[in-house]
Amino acid sequence: MEKIAFYDARSYDRLYFDALAPKAGLELTYLENKLTPQTAVLARGCAGVCAFVNDDLGTETLQELAGVGVRCAALRCAGFNNVDLTAAERCGIRVFRVPAYSPEAVAEHALALLLTLTRQTHRAFTRTRERNFSLEGLVGTNLAGKTVGVVGTGKVGARFAAAVRALGTTVLAYDVRPQWGAGLAYVPLPELIRRSDVISLHCPLTPETYHMLSRAAFHDMKRGVILINTSRGALIDSEALLDNVKSGKVGAAGLDVYEEEADVFYEDVSAKVMRDDTLNLLLSQPNVLVTSHQAFLTNEALQAIAETTVQNLRLFFSGDPVENELRPTAAPAGV
Ligand code: NAD
Questions:
Q1: DSSP string, 50-99
Q2: Domains in the chain and their CATH numbers?
Q3: What percent of the chain has pLDDT over 70?
Q4: Looking at residue 266, what is its pLDDT?
Q5: pLDDT average, residue stretch 136-140
Q6: What residues flank ligand 1, with Cβ below 6 Å?
C-alpha cells in the first residue's frame, strides 16, 4: 500500500475516497490541517500528499515535503494557482490535478447565487422563519431582457452562458481564447464591463487576471450591476467591491470565493473575532451573498474528484504516464 497524507480532509471527502482508495492500493491518512510549510512534516513516511484549493504548495512547503520523502502531490481540484510548479520540479515532486469534475456543479451554483440575489430569496428565507410575511423591501428584478457578461467561456462559463440565455438574457462573452462557433457574442472586456447588467467570472486566477475587476473597472460598470464570482477571489479587488456596494454602484454581489478566504473558508469561525474588516462589512450587507467556496460541492462532483485523484495516484505509483500531470512548461495556460 502507498501511503498518502490527505490534507484539509472533511467528512464528505472521506465518504468518496474511502470507497475507492484501498482498491487502488492507497492508504490515506486524513488530516484536518491545511498543508503549509509547518504542517508538511505530518507527511513523513508518506509517498504522496493529497491537497485542495487553499493548501499552500509554495517553495517552502515543497522543500519540506521533499525533505520527508514525499514524491507526488495530487490536487483534488482543477485550479493550481496555489502550486509553485517550478519549485515542485526542482524538489522532484510530481503534481497532478483533476482538470474537470463537474462544471455543471459550478455553473449551477453561479446561477443559484444570481437567482437568489435577483429574487432576494435569502432574505425571504430568514423572514418567513420569523413569521414575518411582509413583502416590503423584497422587490426583485427579472433576468429576462437583461444583458449578462460572462468572463471566461470554458467548461463552466459556457454552461452558465447557456443557462442564462435560456432565461431570456442577452449574453456578452469575453475570453482570451474565444470559442468561435459556440454561438456566443464575444466583445472586448471593457465593452462587456460597460454594457452588462450582470457580470459573472469564470476565468482562472493568473498574474494577468489578478484584480481583473479593479477600481477602474468598477467605475465603468452600470449602476446596479450584479456581480457573481465562483472562480477565484483575487479576480476582484475586494476593497473596491466593498466601496462600490456601499455607494450603490454594485446592486448585488454573489461571492463563492474571496481573495483572503484561505484562513476562514471551510472553517467554523463563528465563535472567533474576525479581523478581516472587508469581509465583515461585505457579509453585513443585505445584497451580498457569500458562500464558502462550495460551488463544487455536489455528490456528482465529489465522486468524480475522488475517481480522478485516485486514478492519477494509481497511474503514478504503477509507473504509467499520468495524463493530468502539471509541469511548469506544459501547464495549460491560464488555469
Ligand atoms: P476552463 O479552463 O474550462 O475555462 C477557463 C476559461 O477561462 C478558458 O476558456 C480560458 O481561455 C479563459 N481564460 C483564461 N485566461 C483568461 C483571461 N485572462 N481572460 C478571460 N478569460 C480567460 O475552466 P473551468 O472548468 O470552466 O473553470 C473556471 C474556473 O472556475 C477555474 O479557473 C476555477 O478557478 C473555478 N472553479 C471554482 C470552483 C468552485 O468550487 N468555486 C470549482 C471549480 C473551478
A1: EE-TT--BSHHHHHHHHHTT--EEEESSS--TTB-HHHHHHHT-EEE--S
A2: 2-101+298-326 (3.40.50.720), 103-290 (3.40.50.720)
A3: 98
A4: 87
A5: 97
A6: 78-79, 100, 103, 106, 151-157, 174-177, 202-204, 208-209, 230-232, 256-257, 293, 295-296, 334-335
